[in-house]
Amino acid sequence: MAGRLLGLFRVFRGKKKKSHEAAPPQQHENPEQFQPPEDNAALDHTEEKKPARGRFRKTLKTFWKFPRIRRRKTGSAAAEGPAEPGSGLTERQAEPDVSPESRAHSGNNAIRFQRVIAVHMAMAESLAITNTNNEGTQGITNTDNSPDPAEPSGDSEVARNDQRAKADMAVTEDVDITNAKTRDTRGIANTDTMPSPTLSQELIFDYFKDPCVSSQQQQVPAKVKNIHQSLMSQVTVNVWLQIDILKLAEEHTADVVLTLLRCAPTCDRAAAMIWRIIGSSSPTVEKVLPVLLCVMENWPLHSMCTSDGDNEEVFALAATLGLWVILQVPECHKAMNLYSSRLFVALLVHVVITTQQIPPEKVATFWRACWQAHHLHCKPNRFAVQAMKALLCRLQWNHVVLAMERKRGWDMLLCADTQHYAVGLLARELFHVLDPFCSRIAFRLLRQHSREEPCWELPFLAFLVEVLGGLDLIECGDRVLEMMSRHLRSECRERRRLALRGLVVLSKDPSMARRMYPLSQSLLELLGDTDGEVVSMSLHVFTNVLQHKDILVSSTTAPKLAEALLLLFDHDSSYVHLLSIQLFDKMMNLVEDDGKKPMEKILCQSLLPLFLHCHEDNQRVANASRETLLGAAEFLKRRDLKRLLKKEQLSKFAECLLAEDSSSVAEHLRRALSYLQSPQEPLREAAIRFMGEPRAGPGGRVGTGLA
Asked: Any idea of the CA torsion for 108, 110, 115, 118, to the nearest 10 degrees?
């Protein structure tokens, strides 16, 4: 049928090729007198037009018989009776005018109008065009001097078709546009009685005003505002408008995103429709996400100028709200995966800031309007957590969300006092299965730390510490070490603890261990801390550093470290006992030559405590004490003590110790007194036996330690 319909208009196209002038105005004639005129006016018509007019009449008769384009009856015609075939009003689609000047831009302009007509076909199907000169509803090709075809008449069908031919002649002289979907070919009239455009026509010219036709190109922000305004009264978005929105977002991403955030910051229904359309195209989302992230990463307000010169500040939470709408669209998965680490960090920033700080008044007012409009939680930090859950689920990491739910991690994340614990828990859950993802997050957190926002430091430090094992320290080791060193000197206990945990991990790497020499003094001070965990981690850092080859203890550090470790031999924690004794043994073997002389006095003081700890209930501590005591005897070149230890003759060790060094007997006894209060019975008994050992008194008299 499409071929037959197109064939009907070959006469019109042929006539256009012969003459480029506009069609002559139609004469007012009655239908019954539709014959070639006999007066002098007939001389004005050429002989070529007569056969063409006869062909046109015959073609048009056949054309009106097609049922798809037969004219409908109006209400008045239906009331008076059934109309004759071919009679009745044509209810045709309202289409935009194509003037002769616009035909000069027949390239892209013609294609654009064809798309517009197809887009609004369904909308304009039921709209009638009202003639400005009479109250009747008429077809688009009707003129003000044509009779009302709804009135019953006895005229022949031929006469009526002749009248229609006259009325349609002006239409066919201009242009005909073929609709490929409906396979109808409709002419667009260009007469002085062209009806005023309908709603669909106005939208067409607002959205897609062609730069060839307009003297000044329409700005992209203005187009976005017009689209948003028009969608306020619509429930759905037609296909062609969706395509144009996506094209606009891909070609002018910043203008589209920023304008939408400004004209609809609370994400009303129309804005949500646009965000969902953007989310349905993965390539478009890939271009939109960087702009959204740029806004989200500048808390609380972001300022960027659009092409129309507007630099009004945009709320960071408005971008988060737009992201949340996009996350509901399944097609955005690929783009979300591409920007997953950056999105996660941006949302984590929002959670931390909105939990640790009271939002400014402008932000609070804005969010009040948002949660009232969308029935969200009244606190923005809970919405940020909701968006983070949506991101993890869209990335198909539901197991992380469920693990945090089981351990009540999400609730801890919303409390300022426990937030860093929750962030550490979240990092552990992610690191177990998503090592590369956590590494990318860590790199971004390092950049965030450069801003030195106090409220960010503790939660972000907790995340970094948990994922340090998966980082490439060659690339970021210096930045991590600098950050840990800074927090090691912090007055905040939690920051010191986290910094020590990070240093424990870093010290296992030989290249990082060699860079920790400047931290020796800070670590020595922490050995005297009352927190056993802080002390044990400090000991771990020293132990890990000394395990690597070619690392020696300097002559200035060795005596200070030895004195600090000697005090830890009597610590309440058996684990600290073990670590301090083991580190003492390592240090003796790695001290520089010029530092050995100052170490002798401290090693002499360590002999009695090490001897008593050889009687510990904890076998690991007892064995470590025996090995360290043997090393101290060798360092002091006490062959007698070394021989007794190898033969495991500990009972004679105390006697030999007192006999060899009678000048320090009083000091040894004073040290032994403190062990009488030990909670371990073997230590108390060993101290009593040591104090009761015979010793050489003044004048060669033999006495006991208790005398």
From this structure: -170
The residue to which tokens 């063409």 are assigned: 52
Q: What gap in Å lies between CA 634 and CA 603, rounded to an integer? A: 11
Give 591's DSSP letter: B
Residue 454 burial (10 A CB sphere; 0-12, 13-18, 19+): exposed
DSSP letter (8 states) at residue 89? B
CB 222 within 8 A of CB 308: yes
One DSSP character per residue, 497-542 reads HHHHHHHHHHTTSHHHHGGGGGGHHHHHHHTT-S-HHHHHHHHHHH
H/E run at residue 158:
helix 157-174
Give how far Cα 375 sits from Cα of 190, 379, 413, 639, Å.
Answer: 52, 12, 22, 83
CB 706 within 8 A of CB 699: no
Please report, to the nearest 10 degrees, the dihedral formed by the alpha carbons of residues 503, 508, 510, 511 taken in order. -40
pLDDT, tens only, 84-106: 333 332 333 333 343 434 333 44
DSSP state of 26: P
pLDDT digits (tens, 9 = 90+) for 328-355: 999 999 999 999 999 999 999 999 999 9
- Residue pair 328/387 in contact (Cβ under 8 Å)? The answer is no
H/E element, 455: helix 454-467
Site of tokens 């040894």 = 668
Output the CA angle 174-178-179, nearest 5 degrees: 135
8 Å CB contact between 606 and 569:
yes
* DSSP type of residue 177: E
